[in-house]
């Protein structure tokens, strides 16, 4: 079986320009950090974006998704998106958001635990 090349952004844009963009959709790969029992995902992309007016020439992004409950089930909604010149900076920002959220989540859980047992902080 021959090796299959991954669908690249360039190939996807060629399909789009040829009017065949509805046949195959393409979005850059991404990774995310997520704490247990939390509704937020802190993401960064692993494939460079095409520079555009929205990205202001930057090829990397970090963003936050929040889990929303809807009538049809659950869906993620983007809360914040920031563009960067390097992947390393985008990954660092996503991790900083994640660490801050984990610390805040732990503080709230500790406060709730103390309140349940009548303790004081």
Give a quick set of tags describing it.
disordered N terminus; 27% strand; 2 helices; 121 residues; single chain; elongated; alpha+beta
Mean pLDDT across the residues is 80
E-strand count = 4
Binned, the helix content reads: 25-40%
Rg from Cα: 20 Å
Query: What letter string, H or E per element, gives the SSE order?
Result: HEEEEH
Fraction of residues in β-strands: 25-35%
| Alpha plus pi helix count | 2
Assembly annotation: single chain
Side-by-side strand order of the widest sheet? 1-2-3-4
Describe the model.
The chain is α+β, with helices and mostly antiparallel strands and 121 residues long. It has one domain (29-116). It is 32% helix and 27% strand. It contains two helices and four strands; from the N terminus they run αββββα. A four-stranded antiparallel β-sheet has the order 1-2-3-4. A hairpin with a 6-residue loop joins β1 and β2 (40-45). The longest helix has 30 residues, at 87-116. It is elongated. The termini are far apart.
Q: What can be said about this structure in brief?
A:
The protein is α+β, with helices and mostly antiparallel strands and 121 residues long. The protein has 2 helices and 4 strands. It is 32% helix and 27% strand.
How are the secondary structure elements laid out?
Layout: H1 9-17, E1 30-33, E2 40-45, E3 60-70, E4 73-84, H2 87-116
Antiparallel strand pairs: 1-2, 2-3, 3-4
């Amino acid at each position: 079986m021959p090796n299959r090349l991954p669908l690249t952004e360039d190939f996807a844009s060629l399909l789009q320009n040829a009017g065949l963009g509805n046949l195959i959709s393409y979005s850059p790969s991404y990774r995310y950090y997520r704490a247990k029992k939390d509704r937020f995902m802190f993401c960064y992309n692993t494939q460079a974006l095409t520079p555009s007016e929205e990205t202001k020439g930057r090829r990397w992004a970090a963003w936050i998704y929040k889990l929303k409950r809807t009538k049809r089930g659950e869906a993620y909604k983007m809360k914040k998106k920031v563009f960067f010149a390097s992947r390393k900076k985008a990954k660092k920002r996503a991790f900083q958001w994640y660490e801050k959220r984990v610390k805040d989540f732990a503080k709230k859980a500790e406060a709730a635990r103390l309140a349940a047992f009548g303790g004081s902080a």
